[in-house]
Amino acid sequence: MDAMLKLSLSYLSRSKIQNLLIALLIFLSTLLVSTAVIILTNTGNQFKDMHDQTNGSHQILTFEKGLNDPSDVYQWWADQQGIEVSPLLTYRTLSGIAFKGIDIPNVYLYMLNTPPPPWDVDKLIFSNGTASPVPEQGTVWIPTSLANAYHISSGDTVGFKTGSSTLDLKVSSIVVDVPYGAPFTNTARVWMNPTDYQTSFDSIAGKDNYMMGIHFDDYSSNSSYWERYASETGTPFLETKMEFESISSFYLIINQIIGFIMIFLGIVMLLIALITIGFTISDAILANYKTIGILKSLGLTSNKTIGTYVIQYSLLSVAAILPSLALSVAVSKFIIHISVSSLQVGNRPTAINGISAVMLVGVSLFALVILFVVLYAKKTRSIQPVQAIRYGMSETDHTRMAIRIHSPLGNWVGFARLPAAVVIGIRNLIKNTKSSVLMLLLTTMSSSVLVLGYVLLTSITGIYQTAAQWGYDNANIAAVIVNKKTFPQAELKQVLGMDSRIRNVGWQGNITGVVSPESLSKMQGQSTSLYLSVLDGSYQELGFETLKGDNPRQANEVAIGVNVARTLNKEIGDLIDLYIEGEKRTFIITGIYQAIANMSVSGRITIDAMRTANPSYGDFDAIFINLEDPAQADTVAQELNEQFKASASIVTQKTLLDSVYAEAADTLIYPMSLIGLLFIFATFIIIFSTCRISIRKESRTYGIYKSIGMTSQRIRLSVAMGITILSAFGAVLGTLVGVYALPMLLEMVLSGYGIVHLPLILNWGGITLFACVSIGAAALGSWFSSRVIREASPRMLVIE
After folding, report:
1. pTM, 2 dp
2. Share of the chain above pLDDT 70, in %
């Protein structure tokens, strides 16, 4: 045992830099994998804990259309067993805020008349400020999502746009409001003092609207409750219903994406690290072949020889894994904090679950490292002392290396016609096949990670360029109706019709459709409701896209979201029965589309289809406007918004989407940057280590080169040139993987959220730039590793 320990310590002390790099590689691999495990383990926990703590809603009912009596609906649900309901909340809608002298458009607010406690459902959790039964006069409570998005703190004064005037109120508290507090949303509930509510809105035209939340003891039974509601009341629910899937989706989607990417790439990095360890052991055995042969001739057994490597890498693994596990908790806390910041309560520390899973990861990684060490160190069993002393390697390996150097590949390259520097670089790659393959794999993965991160962030920040592929329209301008009671619909139609700059217009309404009972058995306890878009205009002209088929044109046609098609097992040409305002209608499915809004649990019908159930339908929520010259969008939107700001918010499509998805891009940039930096660092470490090994093996050859007049600089450039050429091939392969292969894996995560084909923006200039970063890391790694050639004399190199 003493001999084994002394040999292990000598190996550690002899190659300090190489062992340090191996330890760093194990550290980085463990950090990435364990961080991903923590994120995936905690995905949903933060939301679930807060939803349970607040007794959150599973469904939110809003009453704006006058089709159901709010009091009757509330009373029916309040009387049910296994159901809890929130108070019937009174509200008015506003759009836009002014904060610190800046007007912020595209913020849609439910200004609530705060009822006195207690509440059974959707209890508010105070994150910042002073808790009180209701806001004091002159103050409001705002949700954490609104406060985080615009950096609003308790004590700040916010101006709420009421059309031509502004309602200035002080923020007294910031609260966690689960149903309307998700990140990446432009809708929020603002809680007002009852007296302020009455005095502020008595002078503003329009009437009160209502909403309520429903909490089911067993959410999967919600369909049976709604069937009983329709049967007992004699009429279906015709107002708007927001489902639990929509409430939870934006809380969970970012962590799902981050966790999936990190766990996949963490496993890849771990495999590369294990291969690198195996490669290092193989070369260490080759470098110490004579020494091992002499030791075996003196009586050291094969098991003890293997044990020396096990001890060496056990010490390195423990030194690397333990601190990386501790750091992964801090890193995962940071990522989880920024991705679910709207669920944070003040300065309360983020609770992290899954520590036991992380410890299991650490033990598993340690076991994997030792397993690979044993597998590669077993090669020492075949060492024959005589051959080791004579050749410095087995006779078979000696013959194989000679064949490789004089292989047809060398002749095919045409060494005789190439410059000496190129020959040296290529010869180094051919002679060290295993290390060349490892470096090619590493630069491929490093480039793919950098390219994926760049493409993903570019695609989110530039989402307005691919809006139609995310399920949105592709119009130049969108007008969202804020106050339907005062909105001058006829006047806007006249203005739009007389403006020569406008090419076409579409008026969109949103209703709730109900799947017929014949299909309910296939939905397996999921919601029976669909978000139906009703368009007075052409879906094609406004840029709505489908994955298959076409958008509806006739009254008996419908396009459905991918999650509806998947759940009901429907394809183009199939029939589907939907209840629209209580009337059953049969539609032919003409198209299937994807939409991140409402998780593709939605459908599209024409105004003609709607008017077969309600001939007088004209309850529109938005107007989409296309221009003859899209460059005039800002000017036209500003003019229309100024004219109709009392009841509508009119902005360009880019403004509309940027206000929602800029926050998502800001959240993604930190973990993607971390992953990219880890892979760049790993590329540098591994290539430095493998080049150092190959240079040590070729030290005699490089000594001969220097003795015949070749400078150290030229030899180092030759080695770096070969690695750079190899990494360039890896960068090309990595670009293809990052652009085409990895997004396909990401689509597996997003499919549950309604996106089965990830819309990407491919800026090839930026893609090329990021792909080349790994080439630079590889070139620097090889250059720094070859300093030993410069520092050593030809005589010492030959002696080595």
Report:
1. 0.81
2. 85
